[in-house]
Design goal:
heterodimer; A: 181 residues; alpha/beta; 6-stranded parallel β-sheet; 8 helices; B: 204 residues; Rossmann fold; two-stranded antiparallel ribbon; 8 strands
Chain lengths: 181, 204
């Protein structure tokens, strides 16, 4: 895998790189509470029979499913929006952190860089403090050339150290959700 | 004709049974390969006291996630029967998970609900099932067609036997009394994960 800076010739979109990197790391189970920014990633994963993919009703539920699948021998990730992550502090602490289960999380970041919904802006401020308080490894991806490196290395570290990890997709990478007045 | 069709039973006419007795009956039917996810509280305590098995996962916190965790195990290991053992308060917290289970329809998943119509471990405050919410009707409405109340211990045995053989998903509900749990689980989560994964053959 190319290091950051060596991937300049990669013409793929961020979601194509994420999908390929999940596949390369045998992350087969994908469960999500949908988000507009994640739409192309979710669509791509649904179109690929490699993945077992479905919507869960809540992020807590999705986290439980991914945790169970890991113990059963299948790697998984949950996809969500910032506000969904905001519902997770209790189950994150009491399941993957306490039981040392490498639950992977990908969060489409709302609440910053042009947010138009005050509630989103407020809940966004809780996300990194919660991750930091629980000492959960987390990275914010802002550039296309760092997507593969951060996703790949984070998955490998989570699995090797039996620890959950969070990958935050910045609007700098995805364009975010834009307010249309 | 199935037992469900022959004997329409609701929470109002099902016999009120002992959770520990039912849990012992359930565990006695598991020769070793079936996974059991024990929801928090007395459900889990009775599972622990009914006999430790490496294929049992004992939750500590994350209330409501027995069904999702069991679903994850069931998806990862389709050849293994997986049982979510849950209480009424916990299931009410994550009712949406019943719709996800119905949508995916894993053949190897069984949900067993122990309904004492209360948050027993926190002082016996009534849950919505005390006011008439029927977890079997809810589960059927969610799309788990094979959902039924156990009228008595014999029917509980019969339903478990059937669910262990025929394709699921299944939901078996039992009305239980307010006896406290028979003991308490170990509280070392890392040890619980380790034993469970060795029990499932996913860790050597």
């Amino acid at each position: 895998m190319a290091a950051v800076g060596e991937a300049a010739s990669d013409n793929r979109a961020w979601h194509e790189i994420v999908q390929a990197t999940l596949k390369a790391n045998d992350v087969r189970l994908v469960t999500y509470v949908p988000d507009n920014v994640l739409k192309p990633l979710i669509a791509g994963i649904h179109a690929d029979p490699f993945f077992t993919v479905f919507a869960a009703t809540r992020e807590e539920e999705a986290l439980g499913i991914v945790a169970g699948a890991w113990m059963g021998g299948m790697r998984g990730i949950l996809l969500m929006q910032t506000s969904g992550f905001g519902t997770l502090a209790n189950v994150l602490a009491s399941l993957p952190v306490a039981f040392q289960i490498p639950v992977l999380m990908m969060i489409s970041e709302r609440g910053t860089l042009g947010e138009f919904n005050l509630g989103q802006a407020l809940v966004c401020r809780t996300m990194r403090p919660v991750l930091s308080a629980l000492a959960v490894e987390h990275h914010t991806i802002t550039r296309l050339d760092e997507v593969e490196f951060i996703v790949d290395r984070s998955i490998k570290q989570a699995v090797a150290t039996r620890a959950p990890a969070a990958l935050i997709l910045s609007p700098l990478l995805t364009g975010g959700k834009v307010f249309k007045a | 004709m199935s037992v469900v069709e022959q004997r329409p039973i609701g929470p109002g006419n099902a016999q009120v049974m002992s959770r520990f007795e039912l849990t012992k009956r359930l565990v006695a039917k598991l020769p070793g390969e079936e996974a059991v996810i024990g929801g928090i509280g007395n459900t889990n305590f009775d599972l622990w006291c009914a006999g430790r098995r490496p294929q049992n996962f004992y939750m500590l916190g994350s209330m409501g996630l027995a069904c999702p965790i069991a679903l994850g195990v069931a998806l990862a290991q389709p050849a293994r029967r997986v049982i979510a053992l849950e209480g009424d308060g916990s299931l009410l917290m994550q009712l949406g998970s019943l719709t996800t289970i119905a949508m995916l329809a894993p053949k190897n998943l069984i949900v067993v609900v122990m309904d004492n119509q209360s948050y027993q471990i926190t002082g016996g405050q009534p849950t919505a099932t005390a006011a008439g919410a029927d977890l079997v009707t809810i589960a059927r409405g969610a799309g788990i067609a094979q959902s039924t109340w156990a009228a008595d211990e014999a029917m509980f045995d019969e339903l478990v036997d059937k669910a262990l053989k025929a394709d699921g998903p299944w939901l078996i509900a039992a009305r239980i009394d307010d006896q406290p749990g028979a003991g308490a689980t170990d509280r070392d989560p890392v040890v619980i994960t380790d034993r469970f994964m060795r029990g499932l053959g996913t860790k050597k």
